[in-house]
Amino acid sequence: MAGYDENILRSLRKITRAIDIYSRQLASKHGLTGPQLVCLRAMKRRGPITLGELAREVELSQATVTGIIDRLSSQELVQRERNTDDRRRVTVHLTPAGETIIAKAPSPLQERFREELSLLPDTEQAQIEAVLVRVVKMMDAEHIDAAPLLTTGPSTADADTVRSLLDAE
After folding, report:
1. Is 94 exposed, middle or buried (0-12, 13-18, 19+ CB in 10 A)?
2. Average pLDDT for residues 12-16, to the nearest whole number?
3. How far apart are the C-alpha atoms of 169 and 150, rounded to whole Å?
4. What is the pLDDT of residues 21-47, one digit of tens each?
5. Which of 57, 44, 59, 26 is nearest to 157 (CA)?
6. Of the candidates 25, 13, 41, 12, which has an alpha carbon nearest to the alpha carbon of residue 134?
7. Terminal CA-CA length for the chain
């Protein structure tokens, strides 16, 4: 019979694998990476937004968001526009194609997780949080940046790059 350590590690691997599977399905079915989907959803919610505002909204660096927007722009899902009053200010917004893909794309994995988590009593949510914080410490991972997205792989990659990485496995 497996000990606690083996069962816990197995559960962690299952969580990591579930995130990976979701990321693969998102890329293959919708041509998007998790971070791209999160950025598109933020633009849908907020409307025209600057890259800095978008970066803060999705909790990624501005450089990462710039790469994501470059790829979404090349797919004609978003468009950049210079402000007529202040030419230095650039906003991005969804194109009709971006609106269409957002309507078809599933919720990011973390949205589904948040919904399920919110159904639990506060005491159980607090217990889960405490245990996971402790696991992070045990893995000496407090110093590792945590992207706000439940996704694996490069956050700035386009869907074709993600597919090619997946095909190589």
Report:
1. buried
2. 89
3. 20
4. 888 888 888 888 888 988 999 999 999
5. 26
6. 12
7. 31
The answer to whether 81 and 90 are in contact (CB under 8 A) is yes
Q: Is residue 61 within 8 Å of residue 46, measured between CB atoms?
A: no
The string of DSSP codes covering 81-126 is EE-SS-TT-EEEEE-HHHHHHHHHSPPPHHHHHHHHHHTS-HHHHH
Written as six digits, the tokens of 127 are 């217990």
Q: How far apart are CA 115 and CA 36, in angstroms?
A: 21
Q: Which CATH class is domain 4-160?
A: mainly alpha
Question: Alpha-carbon distance 116 to 136, whole Å?
Answer: 22
Place of tokens 């309507």: 103
Sign of CA dihedral 13, 11, 155, 133: negative
